[in-house]
Design a protein that fits this description.
Layout: H1 6-16, H2 18-26, H3 35-54, H4 60-80, H5 95-115, H6 120-139, H7 152-155
């Protein structure tokens, strides 16, 4: 079962104070000042509500599997809304529905992040580190093998 940190337990207790959270949501105020922290707080509260009300007990591996399957399903829903089938007549894209499906992906991605122990701060920090590494790979300055810059003319020889 997913074990909670003291910070997470404190957050749940704070969120269970129904009037405070209800008032903030009705006024569309974020739970925290940082938007990513607010998303993580809201997703954690939703996940805990579902877990508590449905009596769900899963291992980390079961959560990872379930959440990645859910994300794959959401990706299929996104794909179904766009014109990727070149053999069919194009249809008008419903951007409201498309954006809603992208947000569904965010819900599952944030849940997955939390299940593997990532906080909003961790996501930001690790994202920045990985982004810098990805730029280094494009520059040919990465120390990781396989990312040396080779021009296409060199690979054709």
């Amino acid at each position: 079962m997913y074990s909670l940190t003291q910070e997470q337990r404190d957050l749940i207790e704070w969120l269970r104070d129904g009037e405070r959270i209800k008032t903030k949501i009705e006024r569309r105020e974020p739970v925290t000042h940082d938007k990513l922290d607010a998303i993580f707080d809201m997703q954690y509260a939703l996940d805990q509500r579902i877990i508590d009300e449905r009596g769900i007990e899963k291992t980390t591996e079961e959560w990872v599997l379930g959440l990645t399957i859910a994300m794959e399903d959401e990706i299929a829903e996104v794909r179904s809304l766009i014109n990727w089938k070149w053999w069919k007549n194009p249809k008008e894209i419903d951007y409201t529905e498309l954006r809603g499906e992208v947000i569904d992906l965010w819900h599952f991605l944030v849940s997955l992040s939390q299940k593997v122990g990532l906080t909003a701060d961790d996501v930001y920090r690790v994202y920045c580190e990985k982004n810098a590494e990805n730029h280094a790979r494009q520059d040919g300055t990465s120390e990781k093998r396989g990312y040396e810059v080779i021009s296409y003319t060199q690979t054709e020889k």
